[in-house]
Structure formats: structure tokens, C-alpha cells
Fold this protein.
Amino acid sequence: MYNSIDVTKTKSIILETNLFLFFCAFLIKSFSLSIQAIRWNVITHQLNINISFSQAWKNILVGFFFNQALPSSSGGDAIRAWEIRHLGIKKVLISIVLDRFSGLFALFLSSIFCAVILLIKEDINDFMSESLYFIIALNLTGVALISTATILDKTVKKFGLTWVANKLELNLFSETIRALIQKKGRMLFLLFSSMIMHFLLGVSGYLILLSLGVNPPFLYFFPYFLLALTISTIPLSIGGWGVRETAMISLFYYINVNTEITLVFSVLYGVLMICVGLPGGVFWLLKTKNT
């Protein structure tokens, strides 16, 4: 795959990048972390964890910074939990996992929604159609797996593993999810705020693609972009590097974006994530210095 890349053409694409559009993508992605802080506050409130919006925002930024330096794009979650362990490590871990699950659930639904719309439009070829059915199936599996979290404690106990449920606090984990579902206002906020975050993520990615002089329809770009990011969360590399590039080169083929542009796009997206996470690194260093 990488042997076919034209190095000269790739360098030319990098040099011609529209930095204004890249900066806009940076602002949009940075803003989305504020929405995540509000979302996480809803979950922490349900668990009676006393944390302010500013504390939540800084904690998310610190985690985002370490996501770029640890395996997969979720390695920073452990750092987030450790940073506020004094609030109750078990409850904190549950809140972060639920925050992650909220994002993944919305990501799966967003991908399904876009793929279904594309299939209804009927202006796509059979090759692309088959890939969209695969995306729908994959994301439906993800939705089903996350949905089982509501009865995870009961399922584990049915297999006679009560001690596992107690050790891992699965009772509190599943009870919190059930309580959030019963409070429809909170549940709807978690769902829609997560979907807005993914939409903003898609917009920031699309702006990077536009900065390279490529403009496929956003609806075509969005589901393949989200699937590539989902694949990049597999802990096979630092910050998803390499995994993300391979996934995007493979998937963007379906929307007729050539290999060189896709490679530059993926690298620029990785650089964007580093830039967004840098304030988190500053917050962490300042806190470490003060303690």
C-alpha cells in the first residue's frame, strides 16, 4: 500500500495546505472538548462526584494530551482517573468509562444514520454500497455490545461470578446506566451532545480535507472518516499512528480520494490532535510542578 505513494507529490500537497482552514479545524475540535466536559459533568453528577466544569475540562484536556502519547486513542483515560483519584477512584473510573461509552454509542448511531441516508439516495455504485452495508453491520454490532452494559451486572451473576461483579463494581456501573436511562432528559442530553461532538469532529476533519484542495460530499466523507477513527482506537500503536493512516487509505478509496492526499490528511489530523492536546500537557506540567 505505502510502496505506491509518490513522495514528491506528497511533499507538494503538504506545502500547499491551506493553514487557515487547518486553524479553523483546530478551533472546532478544541470547542468540542468543552461539550465533552459538560457531558461528563452530567455523568459525574449522577455518581455524586463533586467536580466543577473547569476541573472537568482541564482533566479532559490532560487525558487528550496523553492520548497522543499512549497506545490507542483512549490511553489517556487512565491518566484522567489517576489525576482525580482523591474523588473516589472506583466512581471516577466508572464515570470515565461511561463517558467513553456515550461517545462510542453516538459514534455508532451517527455512522449508521449517514450510511442509511447514502443507501437511500441510490446514487452510489455497487462497490460503495457493499462497503456501506459493512459499516452498518459493524456499527450495529457496536450498538448491541454497548447496550448489554445495562444488564452486565445481572449477566455476570447469572454465570455464578458474583465476586467478579462485586470486585469490579459492576452493580454500580450498570445501576448508573439504568438510572440515567430513567432520567430521560439526562439520557437525551448525553446522546445528542455526543452526536454533536462527532458532527464537529467530522467538520474539523472535512476542513482539513478541504485545506488539501479536495471536496467530496460531506455525507460521503463522514461515515468512512468515523470508521477509520474507530479502527484507530485499537491499541496497536502510539496515539493510533500507523493504524489510522492504513485505515484511512483503505477506506477513503471508496470516496475517490487518492493515496497521497489521504496520507497527508491523516498525518495532518494527527498533528491537529497533538495541537489540541498541548494545553492539557501544560496543565499537567504546572500541576506536577506545584505538587
User: Anything to note?
Assistant: The chain has one domain: 2-285. The mean pLDDT is 86.
